[in-house]
Specification:
The structure is a homodimer.
Chain A lengths: L16 H5 L5 H15 L6 E2 L11 H13 L16 H12 L9 E4 L2 H12 L5 E5 L3 H9 L6 E2 L4 E2 L2 E5 L18 E5 L11 H14 L2 E5 L24 E6 L1 H4 L7 E4 L12 H12 L5 H10 L2 H27 L4 E3 L5 E5 L5 H12 L1 E2 L1 E2 L10 E5 L4 H15 L1
Parallel strand pairs in A: 1-13, 3-6, 3-7, 7-8, 8-9
Antiparallel strand pairs in A: 2-10, 4-5, 9-10, 11-12, 12-15, 14-15
Helix pairs in contact in A: 3-10, 5-6, 5-9, 11-13
């Protein structure tokens, strides 16, 4: 057949201007791209990835057994189930409530099961809409900022300061102990706060979180608290924002099984929206979140949810603690390495991330140098916000042999 | 401890005005609520649900075996994997492309694997943003309209006509053969179109879809085509919009394993965004959708994806055809029942939904009467849009015994 050559058809639909505001790609696919390019350049380079915080250790059998059992059951008349409740299965919601919030008088109905924290962060933004203002820790996990940009809550990116207009960046650095100086923070509707923090690895203390909750209360703000690394806490820092009195009236908590059970690929998390949290007109936030979940989501996979239930059995909990303990040992090895090399090293104690200072250097330069000379992928701190520049995040997720080998190479590079 | 009584704290965050526009609950949770209330009233009522289109038959073993195998593999060093590509595993994307789009020169990279069509409809809306206008079939699956309202694309709900301002409702009824009279449809940026249709069960013909694509092209619109029931087509109606020449320049296709493999609870679907689809400024829509998927989603569960691969093996495809065939037999039983009772009956031939006409009656009244007198849950047509009033959707998803029993009761009620 013969086709007359023609100009490509373009629709008359305008591209969403908010999408155009986004800078380059989302951070982690960009890291993956650079890793792939490096591997093409050095096919024999023995690349080790301590970049994206991706779990590497097998899921404990007690948990995968629960999922395989559920999969098989789906082939039987008695075990088959179709659509589940969008909010998650009752039994799993109850188990999350009692395991993680047992002493905090939160109930099954306050828990919304999700396919992971990242998805729920976006669903929360869709719920809040485009007319809210927001604050984030600087540096922070990029999904908070990027989802805010997509929803139209921000202005344009300002290249000179590497910030979006209308977002309040709360600087977290060694000088302030990685907790923002709230006296300098402007009032916003929403405050995203992650503790233990990704990327700095710092966990806020009870006293700091008490101040944060009071700050949110005084300003009438809603705190979106990301506790996805809570099981990594090794001291008496709070594991949930709801340990702070009054938090139920100001906070939402987002969490995940990803880093506890190796569920980064299985996909399971949850969000807590207490009934006490109210919009300015007295309308319960939980009611709107329920509507969002019912309308834009159909529940997490029933097999993943069976895995979640297995995670929260006594054997599952013990197995998860072992997984977490393994990565904590990795963290110690990385921290000792950089400390012995004379670097200022932060995080690590309560999180699987080590935050290494390279004063006066550009994060991307350091990232590139480490990759080029050691074949180890890290994450440049500035990818998490302008205050992250001069830092590198080293993830403790890796096989022991790889972590040891990476540390050996770091020692050769910086000796 | 003694607590001084105090007024509840309300935040100063305004409720998203778009959320407030939504009418009552999302349709299907509302049906579930009425069903539960009915069961409380009639504890011995033997309720049969032909309401929400929820699959009831066990998943074929060849498919659950694939998922159980993947679950077990996740406990091994060799079989473990963490974060997958947000767009889905390469192998699954390739299998979807070759199985469903093999002759249509769509590629692996045009396929975005999702946790289901409902989630992707919402992600598409987030991508389009609040400044687009949209059209829907009336009646239609409620997620299109509700997600549009949430994103702020619409005005208020007008109670008198049961429509949201700014949405173009394309009436589909027996008079026009359930295909809209496009000469009366105003130009919009986005056109949602579902074929085989939920709820009317009607599949558009090749000639109709050719006109629809031309209409979209002439108007510079983007067509979001929902083909989640394509495997139910029993005649030569197109199974994909991309069978229509030129569709790649105007259409996105959303689809799902839910109704083919009983994956309503397992959660797996896909969306096709061809590289040829461009915004008015020439920017590829696929690039923005990729950014959305990377930023607001972390991929479908790797176990569900293993299930998807099993679905697309030769044995899996055969097994899915059997599942579909079973529900098609149910559909025939329901159609024959209502036809024999003298009703005008639509749909059914190419879809697992039967659309029964009760001229001059309110859908909710018919719904309530059927539930009260036969303990069978159906879905009121008006729940899908004002043009659905006077109709009831009867779903063919059910065990054979239940379908036969429901039909017996229908015959008693309407004899």
């Amino acid at each position: 057949m013969f086709t007359v050559c023609c100009e490509a058809h373009t629709t008359k639909v305008s591209r969403n201007a908010n999408m155009a505001k986004l800078q380059a790609g989302y951070l982690f696919p960009e890291i993956a791209r650079r890793r792939s390019a490096h591997m093409l350049k050095y096919p024999d380079g023995q690349v080790i990835s301590l970049g994206i915080g991706d779990t590497t250790e097998p899921i404990p059998e007690v948990i995968t057994f629960g999922m395989a059992k559920k999969a098989h059951a789906l082939s039987t008349l008695e075990g088959y189930s179709g659509y589940g409740a969008e909010q998650g299965e009752k039994q799993l919601r109850a188990a999350i409530a009692s395991t993680y919030y047992g002493d905090l008088s939160l109930e099954e109905s306050d828990i919304f099961v999700s396919d992971g924290a990242k998805s729920d962060i976006s669903r929360l933004q869709v719920m809040f809409g485009s007319n809210v203002t927001m604050a984030v820790q600087d540096p922070s996990y990029p999904a908070y900022v990027d989802s805010s940009v997509i929803l139209g809550q921000t202005g344009q990116f300002q290249k000179d300061v590497e910030k979006y207009r209308k977002i309040e960046y709360m600087k977290c650095n060694p000088e302030n102990g990685f907790f923002p100086d709230l006296s300098t923070v402007s009032r916003t509707d929403i405050i995203f706060f992650c503790s233990p923090n990704n990327p700095t690895g710092n966990a806020a203390t009870r006293e700091q979180l008490t101040r944060l909750v009071q700050f949110a209360k005084d300003n009438g703000s809603i705190l979106v608290y990301d506790s996805a690394y809570a099981m990594y806490i090794s001291d008496d820092s709070p594991r949930s924002i709801f340990e702070i009195p009054g938090a139920k009236e100001v906070a939402i908590e987002v969490s995940s099984f990803s880093k506890y059970a190796g569920f980064t690929g299985v996909r399971l998390g949850w969000t807590v929206v207490p009934k006490e949290l109210l919009y300015s007109d007295g309308f319960p936030v939980a009611k709107d979140f329920n509507r969002i979940v019912c309308t834009t989501f159909n529940g997490a996979s029933n097999i993943s949810q069976a895995g979640g239930l297995a995670c929260l059995s006594p054997e599952g909990l013990e197995a998860m603690h072992k997984v977490v303990g393994f990565y904590q040992e990795n963290t110690n090895i990385i921290m000792e390495t950089f400390t012995s090399l004379g670097f200022s090293v932060y995080g690590g104690k309560n999180a699987p991330y080590v935050w290494v200072h390279f004063p006066g250097q550009s994060s991307w330069d350091v990232f590139s140098e480490i990759l080029e000379k050691t074949h180890v992928v890290t994450t440049p701190g500035s990818g998490f916000g302008p205050a992250g520049d001069g830092f590198i995040r080293v993830s403790a997720f890796g096989h022991r042999g790889n972590v040891l080998e990476a540390c050996k190479r770091f020692k050769q590079l910086y000796k």
